[in-house]
Amino acid sequence: MKTLVINCGSSSLKYQLIDMTDESVLADGIAEMIAIEGSRLKHKPEGGDKIIIEEPMPDHQKAIEMVIAALTSDDYGVIKDMSEIQAVGHRVVHGGEKFKSSVLINDEVIQAIEDCADLAPLHNPANLIGINACKELLPNVPMVAVFDTAFHQSMPQKAYLYGLPFEYYNKYGVRRYGFHGTSHRYVSARTAEILGKPVEELKIVVCHLGNGASCCAVDGGKSVDTSMGLTPLEGLIMGTRSGDIDPAIIQFIMDKEGISIDEMMNVLNKKSGVLGVSEISSDFRAIEDGVAEGDKDAQRANDVCNYRVAKYAGAYAAAMNGLDAIVFTAGLGENNPLVRQEICEYLEFLGLKVDKEANKFRSKERVFSTADSKVAALCVPTNEELMIARDTKEIVKL
Ligand code: AMP
Description:
Elements: E1 2-8, E2 13-19, E3 24-32, E4 40-45, E5 51-54, H1 60-71, E6 85-92, E7 103-104, H2 107-115, H3 124-137, E8 143-147, H4 157-160, H5 166-172, H6 181-195, E9 203-209, E10 213-219, E11 222-226, H7 248-257, H8 261-271, H9 273-278, H10 284-292, H11 296-320, E12 325-329, H12 330-335, H13 337-345, E13 366-367, E14 376-379, H14 384-396
Parallel strand pairs: 1-6, 6-8, 9-12, 12-14
Antiparallel strand pairs: 1-2, 2-3, 3-4, 4-5, 7-8, 9-10, 10-11, 13-14
This protein binds adenosine monophosphate.
């Protein structure tokens, strides 16, 4: 069964075609600058060279048409015609409290995703555009929605409620939802496989450290707490997002700088985090280089970010009353040994011991704690697309 996985943003559309008989990726790519000047499709067939097709894409429907044309091309395609696409799995960011797992898409589901749009105004409408465009172009192909929030729906109320008037939860659904759920689910399940233990018996902290970053406490295979909240702004210090701050800072800065709430939110989302603290870059590679060269601005950002992750990991060990494994994933977690090392050092009091030599690697599945460490430390490259394709296969049952 060949499954097309779609991750649709407001101006981009990432895709992978996966053959679910052996879970191999047949092709992947991204349509960029949709509805913007300079739109292009970057397509890579498995084992072949990346192809860049520059063509105007006025909307997402045109982008999906181009994806299908690339997948079926005589020159760089991987399937004969689009009838080989037997199912489509869509990443959807917000499923609110309605979706606790992935679902087959029908009109009612589309309506419910629309209803959640005020919780994710930048993401859900873009995800819906992708769903509707596929519905037009592949009308008889079953589609599945896989939600970033669904894995965290197992959180207990004590973890998802804020210390706000309860009526805001009742009236508006103001609570912690959490994101990156598909990644946390994949990584925690894979960790159990690597450790050779049932996930039901493990207490795991997953650190998804990319441009967006979150920690998740996974107890017995279920998310019991996570650092992102109502929106992906809460929690860890990210590429350009502030993560946790004292909420009173917002009014304080607005008064001092004479800026509006929209401008302040822009500061918190786009000008803070690694970029804001370092005044160098939002890309941690620049921070890594700066630390190696003894740059104090880079060192400051490195220290503040790692400390925040370690605090969350420690808090989650308390939340779960134990810790069997800490796992690193996403761009930074997979590729930065120093970040992994420094975060783990804060957890030595739990009996976590890093094998410094074993930790010298980038982007591999590996245990890098010592044999006598009481807590396992691992790196597990995330694979959200595969998880989406697996859910799609299971729900479509082809
Ligand atoms: P993501 O959002 O998962 O793509 O992660 C982006 C972050 O990962 C950025 O801060 C990058 O600096 C970092 N990153 C991605 N790839 C590498 C790499 N090969 N080496 C070091 N850092 C990387």
